[in-house]
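Hey,
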Amino acid sequence: MSVRCSLGHENPDGSAFCDECGEPLTAAEPAAVAPAQPAAAAAPVAGNGTQTCPSCGAVNPAGEAFCSNCGVSLLGAPAPVAVAPAPAPVQPAAPAAAPASLQARLIVEADNQEFDLAGKDNIVIGREDPVSNIYPDVDLTPHGGDEGGVSRIHARIFVQNDQYFLEDENSTNFTFVNRQRLAAKTPTLLSDNDEVRFGRVLLRFKRP
């Protein structure tokens, strides 16, 4: 005597599940069912043409897709799904450093006082005069500017195309670069270690 599933597959009398499709066979009295577990591998086939269910240990004919006792798949576990590695965290970009060419300084020869010109596009050189509301970026008053003939607005240094230029602002006692007097309102390119004189106050221009 045999038991048929709803699809017409014949199964041995007493089978709890269809050998072909795994459908529960309600007409049959199922044997004690162990907790179903996914098969780790295909059920081993014995030399006599049978295979043992890896879940409940029941013997099934070779080639069956499902155990006739507990219904577990006899075809092995599904192929593992590849998991893509998590993307590496993005590091924030470090702030860009100021160009080395803009790290320029003026150094007073008499006392080695330094004036940092970095980050400034227009630097006024002269003497502070609160009465006239004049406050130059480079105040030479404490460095002999008054007795040295430095005008209140004597000259200016400005940046153009990553280069520093010096321009005399119609000063009374003139501006000199490497002992050459500059014509008023005529920009002159400055190079590293140039000697710059405002009236009689001597400075040195430095840049990397």
